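Re-run with default settings, no changes from the original entry. Doing this only to confirm the output is reproducible before filing.
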Amino acid sequence: MQQSCKQCSVVFEISPEDLKFYDKASPVIAGKKYPLPPPTLCPHCREQRRLAFRNQQTLYKRTCDHCHKPIVSIYSPDKPHKVYCPTDWWSDKWDAIQYGRDYDFTRPFFVQFRELMVQVPHMSVLMSNCQNSDYTNQSYNNRDCYLSSAIKDCEGAIYCQNSNELTDCMDSSYCFKSQLLSEATDTYDSYNCTRVRNCIQCTDSAFLYDCIGCNHCFGCVGLRNKSYQFFNEQLTKEEYERRRMQYPLQQRSISQTIQKQFNEFILKYPHLAAWMRNCENTTGNNVRNSRNSTHCFDCNDIEDCRYSTWVFQSKDAVDCYGMGGSQITYENVGTEEVKNVLFSFGTSMSYECIHTDLCFSCHHCFGCVGLRNKSYCIFNKQYTEEAYAELVPKIIAHMQSTREWGEFFPASLAAFAYKESKAQEDFPLAVKEARAQGFHSPVTAFAYNETKAFEDFPLTKDVALAWGFSWKDNVDEPVTVEKIIPGDRLPDNLDDIPDDILNWAIRCSETGRPYRVTKKELAFYRQQSLPVPTVHPDVRSRNRLAARNPRELWKRNCKKCGKPVETTYGPNRAEIIYCEECYLKEMY
């Protein structure tokens, strides 16, 4: 069946497999199934809405509302939410059950849920088992990391995103099990490489694309198990070292010139239509060890998943972002080890939960925030199993009448993304009834450019405002420094950068935003012979993301055999696209 997206008006397909999943995921309460309706938004708009609830990268200074100490937080001080530091949030000094309340059938569900969200304390940053990594978020089992997000089992990661098991890496995204990487994306099991993309098991190299098992290579594309190659030309070790000395990367102008040459060189070689490794009956891009999955991106070890991104070791995950070890989950963001969980974010180690926020080790909870080790709760109020089974169907019926049932939270509830007025477009009947009840939510400085949605679906300020999002112009803390220098006035050669730069602020040459260079960062540049960047870390991150292909699929034909393929390379792009069979013949 076809459906018109109520946000962008594009017509999208709801397949028989989608309908089967909605039936499978529909909750069963006291032996009765409560069907989930088909979505009203297209997959693109559904993901954008979910990601409005995830501030992954933007950090602020504020005060813990419990211990009153200075903290780093994903919630700016102007947000109305209560915010606790992780230590106090996880402590037994408070219990979210104290915020429990009765459900009011005269008012919409989402209006009441927002009130609960604002009252129940939230963690300033999401982290667990981290040492000396205060300026990180979505951070687990890390040590000595700085300004990095969505990282796990890392040590010495600086300005990295969506990566696992990195050691002493900087400015790298979507990388795994690697050491001494700089400006890398989608790279696995590699060592001492800079400006590499889509590479596996490469060492001591720079400017590589789609290389596997290579070492001492420079400016190369599509190589397998090669050494001492320079722009795909085989050299002796001595010739390679002489040639390499002619390109000192510590000079910014030389590095920029090589990058431009390399970008042109890449276009001469065929590109695989989709980066799928050890996959069966799967569509999307950057997926490994997976089967029977549709329109999935940046996933490993998944089965029967659809429209999901950054998901690992999961089965039957549909419309999910940031998930691991889960089953039968729908419209979730930032959840781990869950089963039969619907329309939730920040919830982990839980099952049979619907519309929850930041709940841990819970089951049979509906519309709850910040609970730990609880069951049979509604709006944070404790019920018996029998009372829960009696009340939840009534709430579902009420949500059906207000057209809220079967939808993820409207983006107007997000702490980061929308103007309050956007709720009227998302759920006009619900908002109309709320206004009739005299309820008016506080209008706060929620900003699209604080969110993961901005990273993955970038909009300019004017476009974001035109769509009904809000924008936060002032996302930087004031800096107290001896000197502020424009980025484009930094010395071209790393050798000319003084130690005193640690006392300066640098004004980004693209955005004008100030940033600092830390002592550890400067040591990394000198160790790796790399120039000090002239642009803000957020700009560097966005540039890496922009170099990755979008999470969209187009129909094209293999340039060699003409076979139809699905690819993330748009039809107007210049890359030469091969199907997997022709590509493997070319490479091997």
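The mean pLDDT is 91. The radius of gyration is 25 Å.
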